[in-house]
Task: inverse folding
């Protein structure tokens, strides 16, 4: 972890190989960018320098904010607790609907903080009584080394590490990355290769592979999010196929969040998602056997709350990101019927509420 981040320098990476005298290939994600000396990959933060691939965003962030963990969204991971969230710049996908395009599409590296070491991030999180640190806003896959070092520093201080990612990553670096993560929300953007190719500039198959890997081969707590875009990925047929696949491959206890689209980036002419579309998607997921389906980016207390799949009792009431009724006993069981709610739970919920608090980093003494 001993990297010099006091200056805007690049740091070496390991997931690449040489393919010719003048070209190297980045092996971090399935895009497999072929790079000449001085050239950046599509993500813009990894590039060829000195005959190797280097990372240009290590120790430099686009900003820090304390959020409720439910905003990631994670509804079954330390409910009600605060998480210190941050990202960098760039992305390895090219989603036309990107809701964080000002960061993920940024090429202005000099706008990033010049000093945000893992130790500073962890110290700041502890000073603000955060329970975890989230790598979010843009995909942590592309700042792989920075996220891992920060997760290691977090664990040393009894903090958890959370990844919010599209899951578009190669198997070997994926295994290295998720050895250091405690929870993940993976953005399953749609359930067709056509959507991924035409709208995201990527592919669906590697994302499904990541989901199966996380479920079957790690202890990482996993939740999914699908942003529903009118006319693109919101048909009954696609939603049934997607939720059926989740049930069959990831299990009935895997939570899924259906989130509302608003016009942004290169899809300004597409209308916002009607609330009834999210309700329909949630009903389809439940009909397909999933136990926990949620609605997001709309005011829907019923769709945002957690209900017991055995007896129907209200287990965790949510109004936006604020928790209300807590229907679990101290061991995480339904107080009405004894059903054990899956997730990473504590005897009592956190009390952070719905606040979103920007913070400045605090240098450790």
Result:
């Amino acid at each position: 972890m001993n990297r010099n981040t006091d200056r805007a320098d690049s740091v070496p990476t390991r997931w690449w190989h040489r393919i010719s005298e003048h070209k190297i290939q980045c092996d971090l994600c399935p895009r497999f960018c072929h790079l000449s000396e001085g050239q950046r990959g599509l993500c813009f933060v990894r590039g060829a320098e000195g005959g190797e691939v280097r990372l240009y965003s290590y120790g430099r962030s686009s900003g820090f904010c304390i959020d409720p963990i439910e905003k990631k969204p994670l509804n079954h991971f330390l409910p009600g607790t605060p998480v210190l969230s941050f990202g960098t710049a760039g992305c390895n996908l090219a989603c036309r609907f990107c809701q964080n395009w000002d960061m993920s599409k940024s090429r202005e590296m000099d706008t990033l903080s010049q000093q945000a070491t893992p130790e500073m991030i962890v110290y700041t999180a502890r000073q603000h009584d955060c329970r975890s640190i989230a790598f979010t806003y843009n995909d942590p896959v592309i700042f792989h080394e920075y996220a891992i070092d920060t997760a290691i520093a977090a664990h040393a201080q009894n903090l958890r590490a959370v990844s919010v990612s599209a899951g578009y990553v190669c198997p070997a670096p994926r295994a290295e990355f998720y050895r250091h993560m405690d929870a993940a929300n993976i953005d399953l953007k749609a359930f067709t290769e056509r959507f991924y190719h035409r709208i995201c500039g990527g592919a669906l198959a590697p994302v499904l592979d990541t989901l199966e890997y996380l479920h079957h081969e790690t202890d990482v707590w996993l939740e999914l999010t699908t942003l529903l875009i009118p006319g693109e990925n919101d048909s009954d047929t696609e939603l049934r196929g997607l939720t059926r696949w989740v049930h069959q491959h990831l299990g009935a206890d895997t939570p899924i969040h259906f989130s509302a689209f608003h016009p942004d980036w290169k899809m300004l002419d597409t209308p916002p998602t009607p609330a009834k579309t999210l309700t329909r998607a949630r009903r389809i997921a439940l009909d397909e056997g999933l136990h926990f389906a949620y609605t997001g980016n709309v005011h829907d207390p019923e769709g945002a709350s957690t209900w017991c799949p055995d007896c129907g009792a209200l287990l965790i009431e949510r109004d936006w990101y604020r928790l209300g009724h807590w229907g679990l006993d101290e061991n995480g069981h339904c107080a009405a019927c004894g059903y054990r709610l899956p997730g990473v739970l504590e005897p009592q919920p956190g009390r952070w509420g719905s606040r979103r608090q920007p913070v400045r980093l605090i240098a450790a003494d």
Q: What stands out?
A: Confidence is low (pLDDT under 50) at residues 1-8. Residues 190 and 233 are 6 Å apart (CA to CA).
